[in-house]
Amino acid sequence: MTTSDMLIQLCEKLNISIAELSRRIGQSPQNFNKKLKRNTVNLEELMAIADAFGVTFEQSFTFADGSKIKVSNMKSD
Length: 77
Known about the structure:
By secondary structure, this protein is α+β, with helices and mostly antiparallel strands.
């Protein structure tokens, strides 16, 4: 699954359009659609999207022993 696919699913689950998502993070729908087509949405944008919709975003490397190197939009991480 690509990042773009994940964001489309998020919008479907929240019952909003991609245009609404882009406006909530301060981007034009045209610019954001270009990023989706090129699959170039960056980590900071993903975290801003999570914050805008009150959901958690996590990205991590998980080792065999269970330890993680993690990026998250959660304030306590």
